[in-house]
C-alpha cells in the first residue's frame, strides 16, 4: 500500500511537472506507462487484500480464490523499452521496476497458493541441481 501511495504522490506532484517537459513521443509513453503502473498496482492491492482477509480469517480460501479469479491482471509487465522509454523520467522508470518486481512476487505466491510449483528456468534449475549434488558429495548424503 505504501508503494501505491508513493506512486500516486509522485504522479500528482513531481511526475506531473516532469511530464510537461517531455517530447511528444515520450509524453504519450509517460501517459501510457503511468496508467499501466497505477492499474497494475491497484490489481495487486486487490489480490493482497483478499489474501490478508484469508489470513485474518475473514473469508475462506475458497471464497478468496473465487474473488481472485475476478482480479484480472490486464496490465502485466511486458518487455520494457522501445522508442522514448529511455526519455521517461528516471523516477517513473524506478516505480515501474518496483511494480514489476511486486507483480512477479505476487504471481509466485498465487502459483504456490493454487498448489502449483513455479516453473524454473532450465539454466537456474541446472544450477540448483548442481549445487545440491555438490552438497550431497560434501556431506555424503
TrEMBL record:
Pfam family, one: DUF1465
Protein's name in the database: DUF1465 family protein
Lineage: Bacteria, Pseudomonadati, Pseudomonadota, Alphaproteobacteria, Hyphomicrobiales
Region annotation Disordered: where it falls in the sequence: 60-86
UniProt biased composition (Basic and acidic residues): 60-72
Highest taxon of the lineage: Bacteria
Coiled-coil annotated spans: none
InterPro entries in alphabetical order: AraC-like_sf, DUF1465
Amino acid at each position: 500500500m505504501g508503494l501505491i501511495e508513493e506512486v500516486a504522490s509522485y504522479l500528482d506532484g513531481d511526475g506531473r511537472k516532469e511530464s510537461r517537459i517531455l517530447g511528444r513521443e515520450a509524453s504519450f509513453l509517460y501517459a501510457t506507462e503511468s496508467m499501466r503502473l497505477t492499474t497494475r498496482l491497484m490489481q495487486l492491492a486487490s489480490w493482497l487484500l483478499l489474501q490478508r482477509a484469508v489470513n485474518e480469517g475473514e473469508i475462506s480460501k475458497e471464497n478468496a480464490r473465487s474473488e481472485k479469479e475476478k482480479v484480472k491482471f490486464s496490465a502485466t509487465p511486458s518487455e520494457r523499452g522501445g522508442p522514448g522509454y529511455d526519455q521517461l523520467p528516471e523516477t517513473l522508470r524506478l516505480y515501474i521496476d518496483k511494480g514489476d518486481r511486486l507483480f512477479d512476487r505476487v504471481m509466485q505466491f498465487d502459483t504456490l497458493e493454487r498448489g502449483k510449483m513455479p516453473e524454473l528456468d532450465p539454466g537456474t534449475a541446472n544450477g540448483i541441481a548442481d549445487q545440491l549434488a555438490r552438497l550431497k558429495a560434501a556431506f555424503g548424503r
